[in-house]
Specification:
The protein is 56% helix and 8% strand. With 790 residues, it is an alpha+beta fold.
């Protein structure tokens, strides 16, 4: 077979003349679709649907449609000249840096940044495989995927690349179609009216920013346009056209093979548009309806959880296998082209000769082994896959502008641009150009547009915006440093929505693994209000009476010797009036007793919650974790929350710390309703939002939940600044903003707190993995809410 990068008269081939015959020569678009549909579409597009809802769906479709004009124009130049992407960039006017044109040098620098992005891609693949087979660590999967991918591409055979990409896009296309079908069998089934709003070509002002975001992240980008150049050459479109000899026969061949390329580009556009649209609809139908925007790869767990709950355990396997096809396609297609791309760049630097077939094959082979190992080691060093993927966004924007410049130059500054041009194509081409430029300008403008700083009256939270985030970060980090707090998970609610979520520090001071959005913290006594919520739902269903003695449901043999216990009710448990000690181990003999007659005094007790847990299991006939799943987790979307030891929790849990020492306490093997919940701030904010919006319980139940159930016997010197009382497992107090409620938690090596302010619909939650976090828990409310300027 002749070298596809060298045009020879004896390699020309008449182009197919019918549409069906052209379809037989498709191929580069398969590889392109594999490169486009990856973490950007699966993660970013789905998250965008979660933020914007159906209303911006038409923007997704338009975005994918109009950008293809730039791709076609660039590829047309490739077919007419037979030049590689780097040769094309090297033909642009401007100075040289050494032997290479400034454009090639700039592209090389951009690709160095892209190493970080591809490290995030290989990390994403490793995370998905770890979710499927947790027996191997994420690090091990990343190190395995590097050589396994190298084996497939190191010989550089185009046919192998094309067929593998065809298999991958078949896999993720079937996955996308099936996911959309299965969605109709879940509580989030779409209706035609919802799709109608997404195709109305209207856009409320509140969705404009999401529309710009949609246009920026969907469809073909600058790097894929460059990639497409190499695949068109290797498929033979330019080789079959042959060198330009100025004859009409050459012009006819060129027109024919350009039509093949156009069909290839349109078909690939249909594929990646359809798959992108499905991911957007998943976000709009499921996550937007729940007002939930999971961060990064946590989105996979949330979506798989929704399908699993509705369709059964097999749905999780289906979803994860589909996610693997999506993410791995970008990894495979990326590596396949990077060997060619960097070999071409090195040739322009004078380090090798790209057009020497043996040198090129050797270079592609070496790079195919070295590059993925660099990606893997970058991932293992940074360990933030979502950040790494998004880090390529700015570099990608610069690259897209460079490609636009090249495309405009060759369209209007060279003879190839005038070949077979038409006003219709030029119209679409300019719509594409102006749309891309508008998004780029808007993005730059948004980065520099800052509202005037408002004077602060009471803390940061009431007037919080993104400009205040660095000050909050500095506050948290200063307390971490001063009080030796290894890790923190924080979420802020403003105007009834999640306004900010951030993680800090490390899970474990020994391993130094960073805390990220998936890290789970022990919530300690914050477990109590979550369990109380489930009990109140059971009350509304008539399964339990808050004022009926618990012994009538289930006698307690540990305290049967004291008849007074027969007065104890569920209400007494939820407002800490049982008479039990906090824990029986606090007694010298280690036995359970009553410190006073139930209902007569207030005394904080975890023992009461353990008794009520057993009562709930008795009356429902279910384990308490199943009850929590049915009454709290599913209705409120409190996913990524666990109550006893399991493989996921072992993998994601932060380690507790006593002072500077790592705790030896193990994750509870059995659920404890006073202490054993594990969650993280973003996930738990959904519970807080439910309390704010009064979802999941009747209005009268919420009224009772926040009303005075227990008063506190404060000493005069201890009396708080604002009136306070205990509701049903919520500590309630007055504040400068009206009624506030929440709960603290401490298991010694973990400390946490959440507070919700009812009228302004704001709140915060903070989790830490340190016994020394008391000052942070104490001072954070003053900083966020009740800070008075001097």
């Amino acid at each position: 077979m002749s070298d596809p990068y060298v045009l020879r008269a004896d390699a020309v081939l008449a182009p197919p003349v019918t549409f069906w015959h052209r379809l037989q020569h498709l191929g580069p678009g398969f590889v392109l679709s594999a490169a486009i549909v990856g973490s950007g579409e699966l993660i970013a597009t789905t998250a965008l649907g979660a933020k914007a809802g159906f209303v911006a769906f038409w923007v997704i479709l338009v975005s994918c449609l109009v950008k293809v004009a730039v791709q076609v124009q660039f590829a047309k130049h490739t077919i007419l000249t037979g030049k590689t992407a780097m040769q094309t960039l090297d033909d642009l006017p401007g100075p040289r840096i050494g032997k290479a044109r400034w454009t090639v040098a700039l592209y090389f620098l951009i690709m160095l940044i892209k190493f970080i992005q591809m490290g995030g891609i290989i990390g994403g693949v490793a995370l998905v495989l770890n979710m499927m087979l947790p027996q191997l660590s994420v690090a091990m999967w990343a190190l395995l995927m590097a050589p396994l991918t190298s084996v497939l591409v190191f010989r550089g055979y185009y046919n192998v690349v094309e067929k593998t990409c065809l298999l991958l896009i078949t896999g993720f296309t079937l996955f996308a179609i099936a996911a959309l079908i299965f969605l109709q069998y879940t509580p989030y089934a779409m209706e035609w009216a919802q799709l109608g709003t997404g195709l109305s070509f209207s856009l409320p002002s509140s969705a404009v920013i999401y529309a710009f975001g949609a246009f920026g992240i969907t469809g073909i980008g600058g790097e894929e346009i460059i990639y497409y150049n190499y695949w068109c050459l290797e498929k033979g479109y330019a080789r079959h056209t042959g060198p330009n000899d100025g004859t009409e026969a050459w012009a006819e061949r060129a027109r024919g093979w350009i039509k093949v390329m156009q069909a290839d580009a349109v078909c690939s556009m249909v594929v990646y548009t359809a798959v992108t649209a499905v991911f957007y609809l998943l976000g709009a139908a499921v996550l937007h309806a729940r007002q939930e925007v999971p961060e990064g790869y946590q989105l996979l767990e949330v979506l798989s959880g929704i399908f699993t709950e509705s369709l059964g355990p097999w749905a999780r396997i289906f979803f994860m296998v589909g996610a693997f096809f999506v993410l791995y396609s970008t990894l495979f297609a990326g590596l396949a082209v990077w060997g060619r791309l960097f070999s071409d760049i090195f040739s322009h630097f004078g380090w090798m000769d790209f057009f020497d077939l043996k040198q090129r094959q050797r270079s592609i082979g070496i790079l195919s082994w070295v590059v993925p190992l660099i990606w893997a080691f970058l991932f293992l060093s940074i360990k933030l896959p979502l950040f790494m993927v998004l880090s390529g966004g700015i570099a990608g924007s610069i690259l897209l502008l460079l490609v636009l410049y090249a495309t405009l130059y060759f369209r209007y500054g060279t003879a190839t641009g005038k070949f077979d041009s038409s006003w219709r194509f030029d119209l679409v081409f300019w719509v594409s150009i102006l749309s891309i430029l508008a998004v780029s300008v808007y993005g730059i403008y948004s980065l520099n547009l800052k509202e005037p700083k408002k004077p602060e009256k009471l803390g940061f939270l009431p007037n919080f915006d993104e400009n205040k985030a660095p000050e909050i970060d500095r506050f948290i980090e200063s307390y971490q440093k001063r009080y030796h707090i290894p890790g923190v998970s924080l979420a802020l609610i403003k105007d009834g929505k999640l306004a900010y979520a951030q993680t800090y520090g490390v899970r474990n001071t020994a391993t130094q693994v960073p805390v990220d959005e998936n890290t789970l913290f022990e919530a300690a006594s914050i477990t109590k209000p979550v369990f109380a919520f489930a009990v109140l739902r059971l009350m509304e269903k008539g399964l339990i009476d808050l004022d009926k003695p618990l012994y009538e449901y289930l006698p307690n043999k540990d305290i049967a010797y004291d008849e007074r216990y027969k007065l104890m009710t569920a209400r007494h448990v939820l407002c800490h009036r049982t008479g039990f000690p906090n824990w029986r181990q606090q007694n010298k003999d280690g036995k359970l007793d009553l410190k006073f007659t139930p209902g007569t005094e207030y005394s904080y007790s975890g023992e009461g919650f353990e008794y009520l847990k057993r009562v709930v299991e008795k009356i429902t006939g279910k384990g308490v974790e199943q009850v929590l799943r049915e009454e709290v987790i599913q209705p409120l979307g409190l996913y990524h929350t666990y109550f006893s030891k399991n493989d996921t929790l072992v993998k994601l849990a932060a380690a507790g710390h006593f002072k500077k020492r790592i705790s030896t306490d193990e994750i509870p093997s059995q659920p404890g309703m006073a202490y054993s919940m594990y969650t993280e701030a973003r996930a738990f904010s959904r519970f807080m939002l439910a309390l704010l919006e009064q979802r999941g319980l009747k209005p009268e139940t919420y009224t009772e939940m926040l009303s005075v159930q227990s008063s506190f016997p404060w000493e005069e010197k201890e009396k708080p600044r604002y009136k306070s009382h205990l509701g049903l497992s919520l500590f309630v107090h007055e504040s400068p903003y009206g009624l506030a409620f929440g709960h603290q938690g401490s298991n010694g090596d973990f400390n946490c707190n959440f507070e919700v302010y009812k009228e302004p619909k704001m709140g915060y939650v903070v989790f830490t993995n340190a016994s020394t976090a008391g000052p942070l828990i104490r001072d954070l409310p003053g900083f966020l809410v009740d800070k008075v300027e001097n």
